[in-house]
Amino acid sequence: MEEFLNKLNDNKIWKIILIFTLLPFIINSFFNLPVGDDFNFGNVGRNESVLNAVKYWYNNWGGRYTQELLLTIFNPLSFNSQNYFWLPPLILILSICFSFYFLIKTIGVNVLSLNERIIFLTILLFLVFNLMPEIGEVLFWISGAYTFQSGNVFFILLISIWYQLHFNNNLWKNIFLLFLSSVLILLISGTNEVSMLYTFGFIFLYTFYCLFYSPTKIIIAITLLVVSLIFAYISILSPGNFIRAAHTGGLFQDLIKNGLESIIRGLFYLVFWLPSTIVLTFFIWKPLGKISKKYNSSTTNYSKLFFKIVLLFFCVIIAGFFPSLASTGWNPPRTVAPVFIVFILFYFGICIYFHSYISEKIAQYCFLNFTIPSYLVLLFILGYSNQHNVMNAYVDIVSLKSFKYNLEISKVYKQLNSKGMDTVSVFPLIAKPRTLPIRWPDHYNTLVNNELEAYFHKKVLMKNNK
Question: How many Å apart are CA 139 and CA 136, to the nearest integer?
């Protein structure tokens, strides 16, 4: 086993796996086009100044000021163009890679080699891109991506900055890091309610920890807590939130029902996320052990603490489903993206801190006495029993679904852009890729129809067949 792990750490195949994981999403970026709410935000963005556009959305639809800012400034539709929609997903892919690598480098400084960082990064990115729910809506559809994926990037960066802040004792550097943390909290609070809740919850737990175990950091913790409360207040109490809640069924109704549904949904997703994550942990168990040695060398009294932290882990994941259910009455898959990122971070945090304790239990129950072939078979079975975005992305490309999708939508937009036509007939999409956003006019949800009509100033007539 030890010999196999050593060979694995030196194997350049991880770089190939990293490229293999990212490549289909990079390719699909070039087939991406604006759909749905992109036109709504673009229409306001092209007719108003940036400040007025953000104020409009803040007062009329929601307190997600960061999302509204991004969807005004970095939306090609704000500049009367349906081109360049390949750029936002590419930037997001690079941002996700950078944020995770920055986190790995931060926690593994002076411990992990470059090759071990690459292996760790590959595992994390494979999990994120392969298991992320509704990848089309949180990576390619900019209205969803700027809302949830940008919040994920800012949250990962915040954890990295917090780590440096906690272990640094230089006053001026701490002031600078505190400023960066405050800016990230500002940005996170304006992306989505789930990321905002997790940010506040994390800082609250950190403040509680500092009160009892790290009093020298209590001023930093309280400062971050106050900052998070201020920006949460600004976001939650925006007039637009109450207008949107009235549209979607009311604000904070049926709390017991929503609480129970959050538990059910949380457990359901954990059943899908945990198996593959646990199996993939095997490949980076040694690097995790190196990081773990920086913090502890004993497993004394870890049994009760481990149980409490695992219980907290389940509670934190379940809590992430509550904001959307309580505020809007439903929980679209894209809202699960921040929950999944917290799941990844919390899970590997447990693996690092309790590495020695878990290793002892594994040895005690002979879990690692499986042969390597048996373990790889188990990995294959579990991997293909879960959502498989990477495979689906390759299928979309090879089957030409992505290309045909781009062709169909581009043809309609060309007609909508043409002069001399007051009405444009729109047919159901034939090509429906699994990893690109499908938000197209239909008879049942006329919102998309209205958004196209408002942007192009033409009547959109939906037909069943050609």
Answer: 6
Cβ pair 416, 451 in contact under 8 A: no
What does the angle CA 34 – CA 196 – CA 56 come to, to the nearest 5 degrees? Answer: 50
Please check whether residue 14 is in contact with residue 45, taking contact to mean a CB–CB distance below 8 angstroms: no
388-406: string of b/e by CB count within 10 Å (b at 16+)? Answer: bbbebbbbbbeeebbebbb
CA distance 156 to 100: 7
According to the 3-state scheme, what is the secondary structure of 49-104?
CHHHHHHHHHHHCCCCHHHHHHHHHCCHHHHCCCCCCCHHHHHHHHHHHHHHHHHH
Q: If you write DSSP's letter for every residue of 6-51 in order, what string do you get?
A: HHHHH-THHHHHHHHHHHHHHHHHTT----THHHHHHHHHHHS-HH
**20 burial via Cβ count (<10 Å: 0-12, 13-18, 19+):** middle
| C-alpha span between 329 and 318 (Å, rounded) | 16
Give CA–CA dist 456/459, Å, rounded: 9
Per-residue pLDDT reduced to its tens digit, 269-287: 998 898 888 888 888 888 8
* CA dist., res. 205 & res. 203, Å (int): 5
Three-class secondary structure of residue 459 per DSSP: strand
Q: Give me Rg for the CA atoms of the chain.
A: 23
pLDDT digits (tens, 9 = 90+) for 376-430: 555 555 555 556 899 999 999 999 999 999 999 999 999 998 887 788 888 888 9
Any residues with CB less than 8 A from the CB of 118 and at least 6 apart, and which?
14, 15, 18
